[in-house]
Amino acid sequence: MPPGSICAVVVTYNRRALLEQCLDALNSQERSPDRVLVVDNASTDGTADWVRAEHPDVDLLALATNQGGAGGFHEGMKEAHAGGAEWIWLMDDDTIPTPGALAALLAAPAELAGLARPLLLSSRAIWSDGRLHPMNEPSFKREGEHFIDACDRGLLPLRMATFVSLLVHRDAVTRFGLPLKHYFIWSDDIEYTARILRDDDVGFFVPESVVEHRTKTAHTAVTESGGRFYFHVRNSLYMLRGGAWNLREKLSLVWALVFTTQAYLRLNRFAREPVATVWRGLRDGVKPQPAS
Hints:
Elements: E1 6-12, H1 16-27, E2 35-40, H2 47-54, E3 59-62, H3 68-82, E4 87-92, E5 95-97, H4 101-111, E6 118-126, E7 139-140, H5 144-152, E8 156-160, E9 166-169, H6 170-176, H7 188-197, E10 202-213, H8 229-241, H9 247-267, H10 272-285
């Protein structure tokens, strides 16, 4: 791919209708990505065949097994980086970018003249009612003149962000590697962006770049039904054992894990299955982490 090229990486699993809306939105961008790569996590609803038939201009990476969001982004970013993309635009299949979303992200570096070159640029992810989606609220570096200078230019310095419309510079992949595949779902993006932004490297939240995270409800890990809360518990412990956060931040992570676990158990009336979900997450979170 030529210098300055953009590869959009869309991870999908059994949501062909949402994927179609996402691809339509990518085709409607004021500044279109130079390449669109769909990573299909072994869908069973005919997604791969549909992409081949209906979107021959889209590249397809069909995984043999479902590797979760973490595995999908890992493989998609590896492919985009190997293909020479300068920027990799990450999103799930339920991310619907507004027409100016990519153009606004790409315009941000010009506003940063005199500040450090960003490795990450994040969109404002909203739900259908226009408020920030609670699953995609970023956190910020609030210290010093750097924060003030960025705010003066309409941007906010990131401490972490999610993969719901995140622009990643190829240098970030070269220097920091890829998302941890063994996270499977949840917190893989938080760990990855926090790892990149822990020290002197910078990323920015670009509020003028807007995408809709088209989930059925404005859910969080606490309100998610079923046993998926397991991944929140386990992966939080993985992060506490890793190097993406400093000691003070890890204390905040402990508080957040305790608070969300209490809220999840109360919401589910301390029933046997939710309690077992939390126990499994705690048990597996202290085991050796698999290689990604």
